[in-house]
Amino acid sequence: xxxxxxxLPGLLTPEATLHxxxxxxxxxxxxxxxxxxxxxxxxxxxVALARTARVTTHLPVxxxxxxTERLTALAQAKxxxxxxxxxxxxxxxxxxxxxxxxxxxVTLRGGDRVHVRSAGSQPAAAIGDAVVEAMAExxxxxxxxxxxxxxxxxxxxxxxxxxxxxxxxxxxxxxxxYLDWAVRDPAGLTLGEIRAIRDDLDARVRSLLAExxxxxxxx
Length: 219
Description:
Elements: H1 3-6, H2 15-28, H3 35-50, H4 59-78, E1 86-92, H5 98-110, E2 114-120, H6 129-136, H7 152-157, E3 160-164, E4 177-180, H8 191-212
Parallel strand pairs: 1-2, 1-3, 3-4
Helix pairs in contact: 2-3, 2-4, 3-4, 5-8, 6-8
């Protein structure tokens, strides 16, 4: 068992499921990463999510998504696989509000022209229900999303890093563009207040996309 998993007493790590996931990822990233690297990323991703999860039933599925995203980011940062378009990373404290909303808006407004990720310096257990509701009103489905811890690999893969209220938690690397958006934290706010935050983020996202894609019109 991975040492990090041993550090969580009472957590029953579904090793068989995680080993099957590692088998799948080993085939997917054949020639890119050693099996030891893939095993480490799979178990570390599971443990990182387990630290804040309220319900562990779906943790292996979420760990599969998280470890795949991290390995893809690492491969892109190393130049082992190509990155299509601009890579944007949104970071806030809990990855349960602002950064998730901004990432959803980039996907909505930018389509496949921009690839987006989000993370939190201190991730929460789940995305706020009112945040999910406010985003659903404009056609952005966050119901299947989940807070993810900030990791070095996703920062390295990003071309643009947008921080919102997380201070100096995000590492700084040369050659990347860093932006800091002063956006109110939606935690504990009313649906009406969260709608205002959503609209603020929407205007910022539209402006960023217009800058990245000046020849295109953003819907």
